[in-house]
Design brief:
GO molecular function, one term (chain C): transcription cis-regulatory region binding
Number of helices of chain C: 6
Largest sheet of chain C: 5 strands, parallel
Radius of gyration of chain C: 13 Å
Helix content of chain B: 40-55%
Number of strands of chain B: 13
CATH superfamily of chain C: Response regulator
Chains: A mainly alpha, B alpha/beta, C alpha/beta
Number of strands of chain C: 5
Pfam families (chain C): Response_reg
Order of helices and strands of chain C: EHEHEHHEHEH
Domain Response regulatory (chain C): 3-121
Largest sheet of chain B: 10 strands, mixed
Shape of chain C: globular
Radius of gyration of chain B: 23 Å
Structural class of chain C: alpha/beta
Modified residues (4-aspartylphosphate) (chain C): 52
Number of domains of chain C: 1
Shape of chain B: globular
Protein name (chain C): Two-component system, OmpR family, phosphate regulon response regulator PhoB
Oligomer: heterotrimer
Chain lengths: 359, 479, 128
């Protein structure tokens, strides 16, 4: 036998051994998982009614709560699965239950674990448990070295509901280790109307253009009428980036007050950036002010396809008068006529159609 | 003369053996790297904030583009699965690409389609003629385009792209079923890294014989056909673990046409899908990578191994052969078109790692394997083969191949364990072993034919696969 | 006795809601998918249905529309409270167009849900 054949023989034997080992591992895993899942399910079924009983405010509830102190760890998983779906007093009660059982303390310790997933999971848990004592620790995690963990921390701050987090969240948008606007935005929305003053402050005195744009977006989603003067100023402020002015325009549309029509009309008529014109046209469509019909009709021949489409849609939504204006264009050949026909046919009064079907 | 032949044949024999060993070892490496990433991702489950992505009004909208050519067997299931996605803002653009069956009628009846004037959002060039555009009246966000077919999926997708309104576009085949969370999971990277992520793909699994109901996969089951079972293992290896580790190395080349999500502006910027390509899905990914690198805009292609799209795979050798020939042909076109990227450090891991690997192992692999097999036969006929040594060498290669397949199934069992029954698991393990004898060699032959077709510049024609539709679960007994 | 049907594919949510409503003296049945929910509603003719939207085998909206179109007037007029994670404005609109009586968004307050269920039933049907 040459060395080569010996080596091949040894390799074959080793590989075969590895295959057999894997097969054995798979068999054991498969058999054990079935039993484990059945056991967990049984445990859950036993614990569930006790947890529900513990949610009551009365004496029975208190007794049930005390009875859960010594329950097995499966209880924590049960509560943790449920927490994100709940809010209000029952969620707070479950959060307190987790705190009593030491779950919150353990998670707080895990915030400085080495593995990113441990830090992320701990942050998510603390957010769900809603303990205001953890706000500072979670805020510190907004500059974590792992992007996943930063996002998890932002989401957790939103869920925990402590309004002190608003400022740090807005500042996290523009750092070298940043948290993206989509994540920060949702966290701020989760914090609800109590952070409206922070958002207004971020419009007047922005930590960064990104924060200003996001704050404007969120004020619009909240429909915050008090922010109206700030947003009107922002749309008109030609020194601001177009993205920020676009967010302000969209927000004005969402708030839906006709006071904004002149400012939006000016943005629509005078801006070189198509994205901003588009935002202004869409906002005018949302407000649906009769005053806007002339402004929209005037820009209907806009050189940008998307702006034209937005103007056409806005007119289509602006009642008989707007539709009449569109219909006048619909006979034209070329792109303008096409946009008019598309807008008219895309809005065949959908509400009526749906109601008829439901009836 | 005989001496020269002997040495040539012997050299060939050893080359093939070495080649197979290197290929399988790199496969094993890919499987291990992929497994590591999958395990890490699983640790995050429940803490990735999917509920927040779903609840957020800031989540970017998705236009789902579904090309359908004679898909009456599965199109309603696919639409049901897409329309019931757990996603805050989406629209579906179905393209009836010159179907001659009842595809359009079925959809029109189910969703009460009414003709509308289309609103075009891009001017990607299209060859087929658009006949009409329709919208659903059932409240579902569905648009249907009828067009004449030019027998190319890319053309249908480009029409759909021209109608898409949302910032993200998702391409889904009309024979595929998305799991309810699929869109949410592939969209998450676009929210968490909005500046860099341009494309994201999810896992494709074999749906044949899975128990479904109105587009929802109730229970994944393994087909009783060995050909499908082998493909199930193959899909786990290449599409789950392989792509996971390529994406981990930032060198993802292929986001499957059956399920991929892209930034619409980027796709429009590169002119949509290449009409001449037979592998338009991979082609799009490489084109985007090339374009964005050249433009100096950093970009990322992401793979989300938790996301699942179930798809029908060929059940017969003939259909499988055509499919693989097309893939290989498409890969050859792709590598030729982007030959300047191969080995080019300017394109990072894609140029240095992924493209050379695909060139050497995916495209040229079949040449070596088929020639190698032939040389072994020649050697045996000429009596050049020492039976003992030959058996041993074949044994090493086989053992390594089986180890790779077993490792793949083991990773599946330890992580996702989608197949619950022990019988399915055993069948999967056995299929993994069987893949190495017969399937692998025939597969090499199919791919070689694709390569030859590409060299002969045969006109690409996209041949559709006969669909059987999904196995519907029996209606629940009346309560 | 007031009879409430809870249809939700998440067993924990279904059992929580069933527990809370059961505490007010109602009889509660639970189903875990849309098709079974619709069948149960037709057969049991409950006084109120708490319905999830996103479920396997028929979503909540389809169930709701099917209930409203039912030939049996008692089934067609049953109050339906949608309990869903679909929170966009357009979703709420679609929910009411399909015939929902009330719409509760997840994450939800179980106490608020109970109040809304009580309000959707005739006065005195439940005893808080």
């Amino acid at each position: 036998m040459t060395t080569l054949t010996t080596a091949a023989l040894v390799a074959t034997l080793l590989l075969t051994a590895a295959v057999l080992l894997l097969l054995a591992a798979v068999a054991v895993e498969h058999a054990r998982r079935g039993r484990r899942l059945a056991r967990e399910e049984r445990r859950r079924a036993e614990l569930t009614p006790q947890v529900w009983a513990a949610l009551d405010d009365d004496e029975d509830g208190a007794a049930a709560l005390a009875g859960l102190d010594a329950a097995p760890a499966a209880l924590d998983d049960l509560v943790l699965d449920l927490l994100p779906q709940l809010r209000g007093a029952d969620r707070a009660a479950l959060g307190r239950l987790l705190a009593r059982r030491g779950v919150v303390t353990r998670a707080a310790a895990d915030l400085s674990a080495r593995a990113p997933w441990r830090r992320g999971r701990a942050a998510a848990l603390l957010g769900n448990a809603g303990d205001p004592g953890q706000t500072d620790a979670l805020t510190a995690l907004l500059t974590d070295r792992a992007a996943d963990v930063r996002c998890a921390a932002a989401r957790a701050l939103g869920k925990a509901g402590d309004t002190r987090a608003a400022g740090p969240l807005l500042r996290a948008l523009a750092r070298s280790r940043r948290v993206p606007a989509g994540v920060v935005g949702m966290a701020l929305l989760d914090l609800g109307t109590p952070v409206l003053p922070d958002l207004r402050a971020a419009v007047t005195d922005p930590p960064s253009p990104a924060a200003q744009a996001l704050a404007a977006d969120l004020l619009g989603l909240h429909g915050d009428v008090e922010a109206l003067p700030l947003l009107l100023g922002l749309v008109a402020d030609t020194r601001r980036p177009a993205a920020v002015r676009g967010s302000a325009a969209t927000a004005l549309g969402r708030i839906g007050v006709p006071t904004a029509t002149p400012a939006l009309g000016a943005a629509l008529a005078q801006t070189a950036v198509p994205a901003l014109r588009r935002a202004a046209a869409e906002a005018l469509g949302r407000i649906g002010d009769d005053e806007a019909i002339d402004l929209l009709a005037a820009r209907f021949a806009d050189g940008d396809d998307a702006v034209r489409a937005e103007c056409a849609d806005a007119l289509a939504g602006a009642g008989e008068e707007g539709r009449a204006r569109l219909a006048a264009h619909a006979w034209h050949a070329g792109r303008v006529g096409e946009a008019a026909r598309a807008a008219l046919s895309n809005r065949p009064r959908p509400r009526d159609a749906r109601l008829r079907r439901a009836a | 003369m005989r001496e020269a032949l002997t040495s040539a044949v012997t050299t060939m024999n050893w080359t093939v053996l070495g080649y197979v060993l290197v290929l399988d070892t790199s496969m094993l490496l890919l499987v291990l790297v992929g497994a590591r990433r999958v395990v890490t991702n699983l640790r995050w489950i429940g803490a990735e904030g999917l509920d927040r992505v779903f609840a957020s009004p800031l989540t970017p909208g998705v236009s789902v583009l579904v090309p359908a050519h004679d898909e009456e067997a599965g199109v309603l299931d696919t639409l049901a699965a897409v329309l019931s996605q757990r996603y805050p803002l989406l629209e579906v653009v179905l393209v009836d690409d010159g179907s001659t069956d009842r595809t359009f009628e079925l959809v029109a009846e189910r969703y009460g389609l009414t003709p509308v004037t289309p609103r075009w959002t891009a001017d990607t060039p299209v060859e087929g003629r658009v006949l009409s555009v329709h919208r659903a009246t059932t409240g579902d966000p569905l648009t249907v385009v009828r067009k004449t077919s030019v027998k190319r999926r890319s053309d249908a997708l480009n029409v759909a792209l021209n109608l898409a309104r949302h910032p993200l576009v998702c391409m889904v085949d009309a024979d595929s079923l998305l799991e309810p969370d699929a869109l949410l999971k592939v969209a998450r990277p676009f929210i968490e890294d909005p500046d860099h992520v341009v494309g994201a793909g999810g896992v494709i699994r074999t749906a044949n014989a899975a128990l479904t109901d109105r587009g929802a996969v109730l229970e994944p089951r393994l087909s009783t056909r060995w050909l499908v079972r082998i493909q199930a293992v193959e899909y786990l290896r290449s599409f789950l673990l392989g792509r996971t580790s390529w994406a981990d190395a930032d060198a993802l080349l292929i986001i499957s046409g059956a399920f991929g999500l892209f930034r619409r502006d980027a796709v429009v910027e590169v002119g949509g899908l290449d009409p001449r390509s037979l592998a338009e899905d991979a082609e799009l990914v490489v084109t985007l990578q090339e374009h964005l690198r050249r433009a100096g805009r950093p970009s990322r292609m992401v793979f989300v191994p938790e996301t699942v799209c179930w798809t029908e795979v060929p059940e017969t050798w003939a259909v499988l052969g055509r499919q693989r020939q097309r893939w290989s042909h498409g890969l050859a076109q792709l590598l030729w078109k982007h030959r300047r990227m191969v080995g080019n450090p300017r394109f990072g891991p894609v140029g240095l790692l992924a493209l050379p690997f695909f060139l050497v192992f995916e495209l040229l692999g079949p040449v070596v394997e088929v020639l190698g097999l032939a040389s072994v036969v020649v050697a045996a006929v000429l009596g050049l083969l020492d039976p003992g040594t030959a058996t041993l060498m074949v044994a090493v290669a086989l053992a390594l191949g089986v180890l790779v397949s077993t490792a793949v199934v083991a990773v599946e069992e330890f992580t996702f364990h989608r197949y619950r029954s022990g019988a399915d698991l055993r069948a999967l393990l056995l299929a993994g072993a069987l893949e190495n004898v017969g399937y692998r060699q025939l597969h090499a032959w199919f791919r070689l034919r694709g390569l030859l077709a590409a060299l002969a510049r045969w006109d690409p024609v996209w041949t559709a696969m006969p669909r059987t539709g999904f196995t519907t679960a029996p209606a629940a007994a009346e309560a | 006795m007031t009879h409430v049907l809870v249809v939700d594919d998440d067993p924990a949510i279904a059992s929580l809601v069933a527990f809370k409503i059961g505490r007010l003296g109602a009889r509660v049945s639970v189903e875990s998918d849309g098709e079974a929910g619709l069948a149960a509603a037709r057969q049991l003719r409950p006084d109120l249905v708490v319905l999830d939207w996103m479920m396997p085998r028929m979503n909540g909206l389809e169930v709701c529309a099917a209930l409203r179109a039912d030939p049996d007037p008692q089934v067609a007029s049953v109050p339906v409270v949608l309990l869903t994670a679909k929170a966009q404005e357009s979703d709420v609109e679609r929910g009411f167009v399909a015939g929902a009586t009330d719409y509760v968004v997840k994450p939800f307050s179980p106490r608020e849900l109970v109040s809304r269920v009580t309000a959707a039933l005739p006065p005195g049907a439940l005893t808080p």
